[in-house]
C-alpha cells in the first residue's frame, strides 16, 4: 500500500512509483509520498518468535554447552578461573551460537525461523533489507545483553518497538503480509 497522490504537484503529470523527479517537468518528488506503510510487529509477536528460536537453538546448543560446561569445570578446578563476571551479560558458547544464527538468518533472509513462522521480519527504518553488518549489530544485544537491550529499548524507544540494539543499528521489526 502506498500513500499520497501519484501526481506531480507542479504540473499534474502521473508519477511512476519510486521516481525522484517528475518525468514531465523535472520537479523533485518528495519520497515520503511514495513510501510503503510499514506495520510494526508487536512485542508479543517478537517475544513469541524469540521463544521459537530459543527452542530450536536449544536443540543445537544443549549438547555443545554440555561439553563446554565440562571443560569449564575442569579448567576451574585446575586453574581456579571463573567465567562469570557481570550480571545480565553472558558470553557463553550458547550465546555465541545464537549470535551467529541470528546474524546469518536475519542478514541473509531478514528473518529467523521464529520470525518466518510469525510472519515478521527485520528491515531498515524505511523497510529495506538489512545487511550482515546491521544484522550483527542488532543480534549482538539479543544474544549477549538481552535484559539490558530489551529494558532500555522498552523505556527509550517505545514508539517503534525497538530494542536498544535495533535503535543502534537503525532497524525495525515489521509484519510481513
Question: What characteristics describe this protein?
Answer:
single chain, 177 residues, mainly alpha, 2 domains, two-stranded antiparallel sheet, 6 helices, elongated, disordered N terminus
What is shown here, in short?
The chain is mainly alpha-helical and 177 residues long. The protein is 50% helix and 6% strand.
How is the secondary structure organized here?
Blueprint: H1 43-79, H2 93-108, H3 113-118, E1 120-124, H4 132-144, H5 146-156, H6 164-168, E2 171-175
Antiparallel strand pairs: 1-2
Helix pairs in contact: 1-2, 2-4, 4-5
Describe the structure.
The chain has 177 residues and is mostly helical. Helices cover 50% and strands 6% of the residues. The chain has 2 domains: 1-37, no CATH class; 43-175, no CATH class. Strands 1-2 form a two-stranded antiparallel sheet.
Which structural class fits the helix and strand makeup?
Answer: mainly alpha
Radius of gyration: 22 Å
General shape: elongated
Q: Strand percentage, roughly? A: 5-15%
Strand order of the largest sheet: 1-2
